[in-house]
Amino acid sequence: MKHLLSTADLSKQDAVLLLDTAAQMAATQSREMKKLPTLRGRTVVNLFYEDSTRTRISFETAAKRLSADVINFSAKGSSVSKGESLKDTALTLHAMGADAVVVRHQASGAPHMLAHAGWLDAAVVNAGDGMHQHPTQALLDAFTIRRHLVGSGSDEGTAGRDLAGLRVAIVGDVLHSRVARSNVRLLHTLGAEVTMVAPPTLLPVGIESWPCRVSFHLDETLERTKPDAVMMLRVQRERMSGGAGGAFFPSVQEYSRKFGLGSQRLGMLADHAIVMHPGPMNRGLEISAEAADHPRSVIVEQVANGVAVRMAALYLLLAGDERNTL
Ligand code: CP
């Protein structure tokens, strides 16, 4: 595989290879010499048309730790504001010799276009496109789940392992979530059972064809399914009609009461269960401050694991011809 565009493109073998490589990368990060020479002389461009904190910084960190040259491009302050097209931006990056382009774009399908239109001769990594996909987020989520809930809890104990038999509840604004779409495919490929929990107005048309169960009731799901991991989704009010929620969203109080994770619901979780959130969080809406900062929360660890997972993705895409490839 030359690009990483969607978790739907990953076989179980690809996904486990990515997770195992990420574990090896994580091991290098705990040693004194964090920097590896692997991508010396290669250029990684971070092409961000939408805002980001975690994804952009961790791709930059990952590329630098592999000794690549990194160019950060943000649409704000670039010639995009003068009307430059994606094609002309891509041709410019090609002229500058980009080996990999990490792209976040508000339009679903933009990374696919960059990868396949013939404008670039570079590996394209999707860092989030519209409501479509965010594959490295799902990979870092799977990596975090595997580290906590599979084998002995050590990376050696998890090598080669999938997520068979684990139950994951993904809760909240599924409709607008590329994180949910990426996770459902990857978790299913890795053998986990997924339940999407949301009000009917925050579920997409066609969810019946997704490889998951669907529930409108969080308490019932927690009681009946006993999930090993609960992944809370950000309520994306900026993507809702009128920008404030419109018809999708009941009220902050009602949403929080029915679908928020707070102290009472924390008490319903199994002792080993972990609490996840891709960030950024709306504290007090989909997750309380107590739940976000609770010892069961692995939210900060998810961010740290993102660096190892993105190192693995860049390594396998750019240096994989010498080793195993995606
Ligand atoms: N999870 C995630 O994609 O966060 P950012 O928008 O900060 O990159």
TrEMBL record:
<dbReference type="InterPro" id="IPR006131">
    <property type="entry name" value="Asp_carbamoyltransf_Asp/Orn-bd"/>
</dbReference>
<feature type="binding site">
    <location>
        <position position="134"/>
    </location>
    <ligand>
        <name>carbamoyl phosphate</name>
    </ligand>
</feature>
<feature type="binding site">
    <location>
        <position position="82"/>
    </location>
    <ligand>
        <name>L-aspartate</name>
    </ligand>
</feature>
<dbReference type="InterPro" id="IPR006132">
    <property type="entry name" value="Asp/Orn_carbamoyltranf_P-bd"/>
</dbReference>
<dbReference type="Pfam" id="PF00185">
    <property type="entry name" value="OTCace"/>
</dbReference>
<comment type="function">
    <text>Catalyzes the condensation of carbamoyl phosphate and aspartate to form carbamoyl aspartate and inorganic phosphate, the committed step in the de novo pyrimidine nucleotide biosynthesis pathway.</text>
</comment>
<keyword id="KW-0665">Pyrimidine biosynthesis</keyword>
<feature type="binding site">
    <location>
        <position position="104"/>
    </location>
    <ligand>
        <name>carbamoyl phosphate</name>
    </ligand>
</feature>
<feature type="binding site">
    <location>
        <position position="178"/>
    </location>
    <ligand>
        <name>L-aspartate</name>
    </ligand>
</feature>
<dbReference type="InterPro" id="IPR036901">
    <property type="entry name" value="Asp/Orn_carbamoylTrfase_sf"/>
</dbReference>
<feature type="binding site">
    <location>
        <position position="55"/>
    </location>
    <ligand>
        <name>carbamoyl phosphate</name>
    </ligand>
</feature>
<feature type="binding site">
    <location>
        <position position="279"/>
    </location>
    <ligand>
        <name>carbamoyl phosphate</name>
    </ligand>
</feature>
<keyword id="KW-0808">Transferase</keyword>
<comment type="subunit">
    <text>Heterododecamer (2C3:3R2) of six catalytic PyrB chains organized as two trimers (C3), and six regulatory PyrI chains organized as three dimers (R2).</text>
</comment>
<feature type="binding site">
    <location>
        <position position="280"/>
    </location>
    <ligand>
        <name>carbamoyl phosphate</name>
    </ligand>
</feature>
<comment type="pathway">
    <text>Pyrimidine metabolism; UMP biosynthesis via de novo pathway; (S)-dihydroorotate from bicarbonate: step 2/3.</text>
</comment>
<protein>
    <recommendedName>
        <fullName>Aspartate carbamoyltransferase</fullName>
        <ecNumber>2.1.3.2</ecNumber>
    </recommendedName>
</protein>
<dbReference type="InterPro" id="IPR002082">
    <property type="entry name" value="Asp_carbamoyltransf"/>
</dbReference>
<feature type="domain" description="Aspartate/ornithine carbamoyltransferase Asp/Orn-binding">
    <location>
        <begin position="165"/>
        <end position="317"/>
    </location>
</feature>
<comment type="similarity">
    <text>Belongs to the aspartate/ornithine carbamoyltransferase superfamily. ATCase family.</text>
</comment>
<feature type="binding site">
    <location>
        <position position="54"/>
    </location>
    <ligand>
        <name>carbamoyl phosphate</name>
    </ligand>
</feature>
<dbReference type="Pfam" id="PF02729">
    <property type="entry name" value="OTCace_N"/>
</dbReference>
<feature type="binding site">
    <location>
        <position position="234"/>
    </location>
    <ligand>
        <name>L-aspartate</name>
    </ligand>
</feature>
<feature type="binding site">
    <location>
        <position position="137"/>
    </location>
    <ligand>
        <name>carbamoyl phosphate</name>
    </ligand>
</feature>
<feature type="domain" description="Aspartate/ornithine carbamoyltransferase carbamoyl-P binding">
    <location>
        <begin position="2"/>
        <end position="146"/>
    </location>
</feature>
<dbReference type="InterPro" id="IPR006130">
    <property type="entry name" value="Asp/Orn_carbamoylTrfase"/>
</dbReference>
